[in-house]
Amino acid sequence: MDFQFTEEQKLFKKTVFQFASREIAPLVEELEHMEDFPADLLKRMGELGFLGIPYPEKYGGIGGDGVLLCIFLEEIARVSVAVAIGSVVQISGVAAPVYLFGTEDQKERYLVPSIRGEKIGSIAMTESNAGSDVASIRTSARRDDHGYLIKGAKIFCTNGGISDLYFVTAVTDTRKGIKGISMFLVERGTPGLMVSRNIKKLGLHGLGTYEVIFDRCKVESGSLLGEEDKGFYNLMKSIERNRISVAAIAVGLAKQAFDDALRYAKDRVQFGKAIGKFQGIQFMLADMATEIELATLMVYKAAWMDDCGLRCNKEASMAKLYASEMVNRVTHKALQVYGGYGYMMEYPLQRYYRDARVFEIFEGTSEVQRMIIGRELGL
Amino acid sequence: MNFDFTEEQKIFQDSIRKFAVKEIEPLLEKAEQTHSFPLELFPKMGAQGYLCVTYDEKYGAAAADKVCDAIINLEIGRISMAFSATLSSQMLSTFPVKVFGNEEQKNKYFPVAISGEKMFAFGMTEPNAGSDSANIEMTAKRDGDDYILNGTKMFVTNGPFADYLTISASTDRSKRIQGIAVFIVEKNTPGLKNMGGLEKMGLHPAETGEIVFEDCRVSKECLVGPPEGGFPALMEALNESRISVAAMIAGTAQAAFEAAMVYSKERFAFGKPISKFQVNRFKLVDMAMMIEISQVLVYKAAWLCDQERPFAKEASMAKLFASEAASHITGQAVQLHGGYGYMKEYPVERYFRDARAGTIFEGTSEIQHEIIARLIGL
Asked: Which of A194, A289, B169, B221 gets the highest tally of CB atoms within 10 A of its CB?
């Protein structure tokens, strides 16, 4: 057993921390009012190589592993969850399926520029009537001449407003249910693709979440990613690692909320002493620290298993499930430690608390994670 | 990073698992009924090298790492937390000797503790000093080359049968915590009165006693370490022991989960196995998740200990989380068994009763919170 980071990983963590403090922290306040992701930041992350962490050098990546990706996301999330999620969409959303299932030509056209941050990608998967039940999508792709005609509407498409490229799931064979779904890559500007409204959210204000409409959108057959009708399985495979990524982001947020609360508890004086000297506050912080430790271990265990090529479906879901519920408890308590100030917009606690709420919902709700784990346990 | 056991640890896990099923499990039922521990297990465990597993080879120990100790406790905890608590007391009670005993004491106590030839008990708690373990009333008064012990030790695991009792006593009560010393007292010493076992809610095979010392005269060779300032050695013993305890609790939680899995797949209600109802599946999933993360943290704490790095915070976190989780998990296991869960013929009611001790013994959950709060800088 070895529970520590290598020297290289430690150094990388420090580099990301410095980048986040220098280049992201100054943007955080502005991002809260933007309701969209700053495209320039992705370009910058691309320059620094961050967007290519898990990809081989031949595509411009840095050839890192899942553990390294978690380190990156954790550090970014400490400063901004929105930026962490915006970057994971870029790193894993489109790039991962292209890397796993794309042709060499698709990799050249899409993976390489997305690693450089030159092409922004987003995932158009969820529909108004198909959330957790991913397989019940209605968007269809009908064969037409030398390509497909895509018809349907997608919602909750993160980075949809700034994207050059959309990763779309659509039904290619209505008779086959789950086995009739395929994956497509649709470029912005394709006639029939309409980026509709930006849907306002409780938190994650630094991100735009769009509705994207495909109105008889005509794409070439080269837009098909992977084999026809194999989309669902490929999709499940490519989003497995995303659960670990999202869990790492939850851990980063929880750590920041904890650090803030700990500092505040030591500084804030009430009834003649620092509130951190009261047992009620001490126990809250001890619980937060314990839960963060547990979630961190589970995240890195799952990432390590994935890196070793071990089956980690159960562990990835456990990491996502525990970390996302943990971050809600931790940000709730952190805000509580801050009292009235925690509720005020001039302190970041309210943002942590709002941002935390989404973790139990996106990338598979807590209920879906429990369904996956249950299946893995043989239930 | 590497979350896997070494080859040696895997072999260890495999062998203790087999030993637990073959040699320990058959003894359980009688022990539960008679509320007594099968003492023959001490030498049997000793012969396999499972007692005081981390101690030095020169005393006859396996000289394995703390991870192996956690593995042993987890596997025995899967059979019975009471058994694990009883057997691990051997290490806890001799640990102060490891911290600052002299070579003569090591030669006297270690080989017999490791072989299981002699049995040890740890007595720190008193009727008026539980969590506040520095506030003991027991005194040790110097008299020539001897000490005279007076006081009462409470909730002494293995107290009713132990050959040796490791106890804390104050050589100078005015100095409070600084005035505490550690002694090892032989059971037949005049003035030592074994009051017998106390009846408990669970952990029935673990014998928990009350020991009264009335003008009990012991030679100064019984003093372990200095006549003052013995408290840190006790804390060090408890720190390491916390990992073992967290492991045994996690083992019991795992046993409850495994029983609940089997039962919910077999039990039919409303025309299907109850495991097919989502509310039950989600219960089992949460149990599995809590067990998984408890165990990862237990092994991290053990690994830190093996690396000779600070591990007290992680050990407390592991003990806190594992015990709170085990209370919940064993409760859910009873719930999934319904009426049968409440019946003695199924093991889950025992797990439930045993797990209840987990948040109390070897430092209550409240004390673990205190320790963690201090170690995060509050």
From this structure: B169
Closest-CA residue to A83 (of A19, A14, A137): A19
Long-range (24+ apart) CB contacts under 8 A made by A309-312 are: A312/A240, A312/A244
Across the interface, whether the CB atoms of A262 and B293 are under 8 A apart is answered: no
Burial of B279: CB neighbours in 10 Å, binned 0-12, 13-18, 19+: exposed
How many Cβ atoms from other residues are within 10 Å of residue B34's Cβ?
11
CATH code linked to domain B232-375:
1.20.140.10
Pairing of strands B146-157, A224-225: unpaired
The answer to whether residues A217 and A279 belong to one domain is no
Name the residue type at position B164. Answer: Y
Q: Does B332 touch chain A (CB under 8 A)?
A: no
Range of the domain at A362: 232-376
CATH annotation of B7-118: 1.10.540.10
DSSP string, B37-72: --TTHHHHHHHHT-SSTTS-GGGT-----HHHHHHH
- Whether A162 and A37 have beta carbons less than 8 Å apart is answered as yes
φ and ψ at B72, to 5 degrees? -60, -50
Nearest to B359 by CA among B331, B329, B325, B333: B325
Whether A153 contacts chain B with CB within 8 A = no
User: How many residues in total does chain B contain?
Assistant: 378
**Phi/psi at B151 (5° precision):** 150, -175
Helix/strand/coil for A158: strand
A303 and A283 Cβ atoms separated by less than 8 Å: no
**Which chain A residues are Cβ-neighbours of B1 within 8 angstroms?**
2-6, 67, 300, 304
Q: Measure the N-to-C terminal CA separation of chain A; round to a whole number of Å.
A: 30
Q: Locate the domains of chain B by residue range.
A: 7-118, 121-228, 232-375
- Residue-wise pLDDT for A306-358, tens only, equals 999 999 999 999 999 999 999 999 999 999 999 999 999 999 999 999 999 99
ipTM given for this complex = 0.91
Q: Are residues A338 and A352 in the same domain?
A: yes
Is the confidence at residue A238, as pLDDT, over 80? no
Residues in B closer than 8 angstroms to A286, CB to CB, are 320, 368-370, 372-373, 376
CB neighbour class for A192 (10 Å; exposed up to 12, middle 13-18, buried from 19): middle
Domain-embedded: residue A2: no
- The verdict on A195 and A294 lying in the same domain is no
